[in-house]
Amino acid sequence: MAEHYTNGIDARGLATDPETGEVLSCRDAGPRSPLAIYRGRSAKELGIALTEGEGSHPISCLDHALYLGRELQKAEAALESGADYVQD
Question: Domain coordinates of the chain in residue numbers?
Fold first, then answer.
């Protein structure tokens, strides 16, 4: 499963709430609601849902698509082996 959240980027390069413009905190932040949730039984299925499935497709840059593909593969391998997954 992958959840898609939206944010803006301010002049300092910080992630901001698209509605309020306030900087998003990584700590002590309340829960946010995803714009969309994508599901698949494998990294490949999830990648297809993100790029070819029904609904919106949040990937607009090739470098982002490649990054997500690598991370999905790492996450799948971690689930299969029981290892911890740490996002790059």
Answer: 2-81
